[in-house]
Amino acid sequence: EPRSPWCCLAWTLVIGTMNCLLFLLNLLLMLVIFTVVLLPTIVVVYFGFQCHSQVLHSSARYCKSILDDNSSSALIILGFVIMSPLLVVAMAIYCSLARRLQLLVCFQPFSLALYKGEHCCHPREGGLCCARGCNTHLKAWV
């Protein structure tokens, strides 16, 4: 049964807000995972650029006693070389976590705002956003 225009507008705002919050949750989760996994690359490249005489040339003690231009260049190259495998690892961790938490199933279509009685859920009842009393024959991404 179709909803009234005002009810449709209200449900569109609710669904839109929920989808935006889920998008921000996914973005935050991705940011945290990528930051943690890519931390070695960030540190190595940072110290390489900080101690190289052509870039920043820091006056820190470790730059003068341990790292010269050749070792700083080696750190920069090493950081960019190990970045590719770590990006793959970070994406694999994010995808497995998003699938386990079923975050991508929680996005609701805007057609739910137009009609009453439609529920969207996934077959497993343990997810974060499963609606109660939904049709168990409805298939979703698993």
TrEMBL record:
<keyword id="KW-1133">Transmembrane helix</keyword>
<dbReference type="InterPro" id="IPR033355">
    <property type="entry name" value="TMEM88"/>
</dbReference>
<keyword id="KW-0812">Transmembrane</keyword>
<comment type="similarity">
    <text>Belongs to the TMEM88 family.</text>
</comment>
<feature type="transmembrane region" description="Helical">
    <location>
        <begin position="21"/>
        <end position="49"/>
    </location>
</feature>
<keyword id="KW-0472">Membrane</keyword>
<dbReference type="GO" id="GO:0005886">
    <property type="term" value="C:plasma membrane"/>
</dbReference>
<dbReference type="GO" id="GO:0030165">
    <property type="term" value="F:PDZ domain binding"/>
</dbReference>
<protein>
    <submittedName>
        <fullName>TMM88 protein</fullName>
    </submittedName>
</protein>
<feature type="transmembrane region" description="Helical">
    <location>
        <begin position="74"/>
        <end position="94"/>
    </location>
</feature>
